[in-house]
Amino acid sequence: MSNNGQRAAVAGSAAGRVPGRRTFAIISHPDAGKTTLTEKFLLYSGAIKTAGAVKSRKQERVRSDWMELERQRGISITSAVLGLDYRGRRLNLLDTPGHADFSEDTYRTLYAVDSALMVLDAARGIESRTLKLFEVCREQSIPIITFVNKLDRPALEPLELLDQIESSLGLKPVPVTWPVGDAGDFRGVVDRRDGTLVRYNRTAHGAAVGSEETVPLSEVGEAEELLEELALLEAVGSGAGEDFDRESFLAGDLTPVFFGSALANFGVRLLLDSFVELAPAPVPRRDAAGRIRDLDEPFSGFVFKVQANMDPKHRDRIAFVRVCSGRFERGMRLVCERTGRVVATRHAQQLFADDRETVEEAYPGDVVGLVNTQGLNVGDTLFAEGATASPFPRIPDFVPEHFALARNGDSGKHKQFWKGLGQLSEEGVVTVLRRPEDGGQEPILGAVGPLQFQVAEHRMEHEFGAPLRLRSAPWTEALRLTSEKEALRLSEVRGTRIVRDGRGRPLALFEDRYWLRQALEKLGKEGG
Ligand code: GDP
């Protein structure tokens, strides 16, 4: 690949390498077009020659027998982070699994990015999953750039979409481009920054880079109507120029909005060009004590995802580390802050487009995959040996959304059963919840995505030799309780079951949203 030369280049200071890096994730509801857009990024960056590959791989993925599941895990590993070079910038796109493989990893990944690209389906606007992912971004004030996709089809009115962004997310939308043409007859976008119209010509299913033609607005037939629309935008306070306040954007209060169609390659180049300009480069991160760790300080990073390969022939376990400061060099000795143990980095890997290859060095904003690091868990901070060891903030545990009752399928494998569950729970595959009254027999498993149960079953059997028997559980909602007092208050309430997670913290489970709302009311909390 063409970036070999760059990677072999002499080491510079970490801070010197950072300005060209953009580490981000795409947040969207399933089917909004994340995969298609990712593929178009590969196309426009020259990493692939024709589009269509991601799509077909995904169709294969839908078949779900065991072989497929294993393969799928293989695919998720190779796509945990995509490295792309575009116009002199290094883009690190972190994967946020979205369909059946949606899991806690999807949320955790958002702790390792510097910005997010929010993709909306123009006909659907803000959807439930978008909202949840957005909330995780908001918590950390991650800057968000919005792409309204599928403009080639009938869509909601652009103003209605802006209104949804503002009212559902509390984010001020600033349209940088504006769609031209009627619903279903999309002809291009006006770039409001310089008043030009970018006209698009359809290529065969958007397989190749789209051909675009840029013309001044004054030369456009339908200019008058357009100008009126644009004037209206200014009037409602959505000006592209003076209203675009970079500070508010970086604080996560304002989002620049782009329109287009990933499938038809409409507006993709404009999005990408603007994205590399707008999205922030990695900035120094604060540790848990609030101290800023400069980019040039010795190596530090944290594990945001751990993935165990289910293929018994390659039982490697990869810990994905986001580099926060300093220079990573393959073979260097790192120390895990939590355990004090030295971590070998001889088998570090980085991922470029589709290839998994050995990484020699990495800088803040990059992601390094450390292979066969049994002792590393999500949230662990790593330091260069000898450097100060102050951890980065904890990645929070997310509340499970799916539940199942778990039994040991082989009474002779008691030890393996609990060891396996302990390991899966540490990795965050499933959360193991205990009821005081279960006599230590039938724990409840909680997961953020339902596929995690299949992963747990498979790994328990093949990796720990303890078959897991799952049966359905009645709960559909969970609430993390903040104190024992809250647990006590809810313990006698109908429709509520109090359980404890691996660290003994209480959660309340409900069979219905109704009971959750009742509980929130009883605790004097809003929402539900
Ligand atoms: P993901 O679930 O967000 O990754 O969505 P995909 O990229 O897999 O897209 C879901 C479906 O929407 C697929 O059938 C795509 O071909 C289709 N799609 C994606 N982008 C566009 C677009 O711009 N226009 C139209 N008409 N369809 C699109």
From TrEMBL:
Q: Which domain of life is it from?
A: Bacteria
Subcellular location, record wording: Cytoplasm
Q: Does the keyword Protein biosynthesis apply?
A: yes
Q: Which UniProt keywords apply?
A: Cytoplasm, GTP-binding, Nucleotide-binding, Protein biosynthesis
A biological process (GO) of this protein is:
regulation of translational termination
**Sorted alphabetically, which PROSITE patterns does this protein's record hold?**
G_TR_1, G_TR_2
| Major location (coarse) | cytoplasm
Please give the SUPFAM superfamilies that the UniProt record associates with this protein. EF-G C-terminal domain-like, P-loop containing nucleoside triphosphate hydrolases, Translation proteins
> Where GTP is bound, by residue?
28-35, 95-99, 149-152
Under the cellular component aspect of Gene Ontology, which terms does the record hold? cytosol
Q: Name the family.
A: Belongs to the TRAFAC class translation factor GTPase superfamily. Classic translation factor GTPase family. PrfC subfamily.
PANTHER family, per the entry: PEPTIDE CHAIN RELEASE FACTOR RF3
Which NCBIfam families does the UniProt record give?
A: prfC, PRK00741.1, small_GTP
User: What is the official name of this protein in its record?
Assistant: Peptide chain release factor 3
What organism does this protein naturally occur in?
Rubrobacter radiotolerans (Arthrobacter radiotolerans)
* Upper taxonomic lineage: Bacteria, Bacillati, Actinomycetota, Rubrobacteria, Rubrobacterales
